Amino acid sequence: METYKNNYRLKLANLELIAGNVAAKQLQLQKKYILESEFSSEKLREQNTLQEYLQAAYDVLSACINMEKLTKN
User: Fold this and answer.
1) What's the CATH number for 2-72?
2) pLDDT, tens digit, for every residue of 36-59?
3) Residue 63, φ and ψ in degrees, nearest 5
4) Residue whose C-alpha is closest to residue 22's, from 48, 53, 52, 51
5) Is the pTM of this model over 0.90?
6) What angle do CA 18, 22, 28 make, to 5 degrees?
7) 43 and 22 in contact (C-beta within 8 Å)?
8) Closest to 17 (Cα-Cα) out of 41, 39, 50, 40
9) Could you give the C-alpha distances from 39 to 4, 15, 23, 44, in angstroms and in order?
10) Residues 6+ apart with CB under 8 A from 1
């Protein structure tokens, strides 16, 4: 269970970092320092990171439900 919780915390921290990167890339794009393709790559990375975060959250919830089922039996 602790492993799932730690993984969740790490994924959340990673998501927050990526969100900051996307904001920075968007600013760079607006100032024409980078190409649209580079910004799109960062947005895709953000979407993948969000998916990993959501999977980690699901894993924690699933583990909690399974633990509860085991303790009731």
Assistant:
1) 1.10.287.470
2) 999 999 999 999 999 999 999 999
3) -65, -40
4) 48
5) no
6) 140
7) yes
8) 50
9) 31, 16, 10, 9
10) 60, 63, 64, 67
* Per-domain boundaries in the chain: 2-72
What is the spatial distance between Cα 15 and Cα 27, in angstroms, rounded to a whole number? Answer: 19
**What are 15-33's pLDDT values in tens digits?**
999 999 999 999 999 999 9
How far, in whole angstroms, is CA 28 from its chain's centroid? 22
Measured between alpha carbons, how far apart are the two ends of the chain, in Å?
19
Measured distance CA(36)–CA(51) in Å, rounded = 23
Contact in structure between 15 and 53 (CB atoms under 8 Å): yes
Give the list of residues 6+ apart from residue 22 with CB closer than 8 angstroms, or none.
42, 43, 46
Is the CA virtual torsion 23, 29, 34, 37 positive or negative?
positive
Q: Which amino acid, residue 34?
A: I
